[in-house]
C-alpha cells in the first residue's frame, strides 16, 4: 500500500553533459512550473565509468551521494537526448551505478518518467524503449501512457530553459499521471 505524501520530492537526471543541454533545460522548465509542494532537484550525470571493483562501501563518494539522492526521492524524471538512435553513454552509466548493488538498488520500485528531446521532429522517440527497458530490468516502476517526446527542442527553449507551453503541459500531464498512478499525492497538482 502506498502512503499519501504531503510533499513530493523528485529528482531529475539529464542524459547529457553539455552545459546548455536541452535535457537539463527541459528539467529546469518543468521545475519552474511545479506546484509549491512538489520539488525537483537536478542530479549531475557526470560520474566515473561504472567499475565493479570500485562499487564497494568505500567507493567513490559522488556515487554514494548520487544513490542517496535517488533513494531519498519519491520519483525520478529522466530527460534525455537520443544519440545515434539510442541511449547516451552518460545516462546508461548513471543508471548502471544506480542499479547496484544487485537486489538493493535505489531504483527498485521507484516511480520513473522518461522524457526525450531532440532538434529533430521525432523528439528522440527511439531512445524511450532503451531507457524504459533498462529501468524495468532494475526494476523501477516506469510510468505508462503516452511517451513524452519533444521534437524541435531548439525552438522551444529560451536562455537554456524549456518554455514552450504545449510541451510543458504535455510533460506535466505525464508527471501528474506518475503522481496519481503511484498515489504520491495527486492533489498537489490540483
Question: Could you explain how this protein is built, in words?
Answer:
There is one protein chain. The protein is an alpha/beta fold. It has a single domain (9-189), classed as Flavodoxin domain (Rossmann fold, 3-Layer(aba) Sandwich), CATH 3.40.50.360. 34% of the residues lie in helices and 18% in strands. The chain has five helices and eight strands, in the order E-H-E-H-E-H-E-H-E-E-E-E-H. The strands form two sheets. Strands 1, 2, 3, 4, 5 and 6 form a six-stranded parallel sheet that branches. Strand 3, helix 3 and strand 4 form a beta-alpha-beta unit. The relative contact order is 0.19.
Structural domain tally: 1
Do you know the CATH architecture?
A: 3-Layer(aba) Sandwich
CATH fold node name = Rossmann fold
Low-confidence stretches: none
Largest sheet: 6 strands, parallel
- Fraction of residues in helix: 25-40%
Strand content: 15-25%
Gyration radius over CA: 16 Å
How many β-strand stretches?
Answer: 8
Query: Could you name the CATH homologous superfamily?
Result: Flavodoxin domain
